[in-house]
Amino acid sequence: MTRRWTTRAVLLHVVLVALALVYIYPFLLSVATSFKTDAEAVANPLSLWPETFTTAAYERLFVNSDFPLWFRNSVVVTVAVTLGRVLFSSLAGYALARIPFKGRGLVFGLIIGIMAVPGVVLLIPRFLVLNTFGIYDTWAGIIFPLMVDAAGVFIMKNFFESIPPAVEEAARIDGAGTFRMFWSIVLPMAAPAVITITILSFQGSWNELTHFIVASQRADLVTLTKGVAQLSSGALSQGSQFPLTLGAAMIMTIPVAILFFIFQKKIMNVSTGAVKG
């Protein structure tokens, strides 16, 4: 019995290791290719070790392209969108969870319905709205439509409903208003949900592409995702440009990885607390 269990465990570990390699191999290949020459990247596309190690792709990115401008634009948009989503999703979630008003169920149903609509369906209407309001090709047109997210409202509403209303009763007796109860009492208790919204909003806005294509054509408003897409289509020169494109993609992963490592401990603490509770 022990021998059969051991054989099964070995097979299971072999399968898990194989799946892990399949998952991580494309990432390692991207890192390796970014340090190859263009010719080697085409000749040995699956090699994980560059025969001629070079940082030419990164030098071209920072010297001969608008990559620094794209990076700055992405930082500006991502920070603004993340702050906006956390604030507005929290306010909307609290209103739907705690404030009784006529049509509250209908509003929440519409929000759930929006989550079911594919984003590509909304691209043309979004362009028409931006053009009608005169904010096409502006920072406002790039940032404002992303500052509210239906999934964020859904998460915050459900979390606020899990907080006992008795917590707010004491503050209400002391004369606290609705916004003060939200800001000073309920929102700090919703830290796990706020962290979740922050991570999802940062990652989503950092990797957003379709909205930026629809919202702007100005060269000085190009973000990283749009710029890398232009590189893939041969923006700087002819040919595949695999090292250049994958080098840009590698740099794009750094801010998201940093955010994960910053919040990793808090996420783990939240999970531990939930288990102990």
From TrEMBL:
GO annotation terms (biological process): transmembrane transport
UniProt entry tagged with the keyword Transmembrane helix: yes
Annotated keywords: Cell membrane, Membrane, Transmembrane, Transmembrane helix, Transport
Subcellular location: Cell membrane
Bilayer topology term: Multi-pass membrane protein
GO CC list: plasma membrane
Transmembrane segments: 9-28, 70-94, 106-127, 139-160, 181-202, 242-263
Location, primary (coarse class): membrane
Pfam families per UniProt: BPD_transp_1
Gene3D superfamilies: MetI-like
Domain ABC transmembrane type-1: 71-263
Family: Belongs to the binding-protein-dependent transport system permease family.
Name of the molecule in the record: Carbohydrate ABC transporter permease
The organism of origin for this protein: Xylanimonas protaetiae
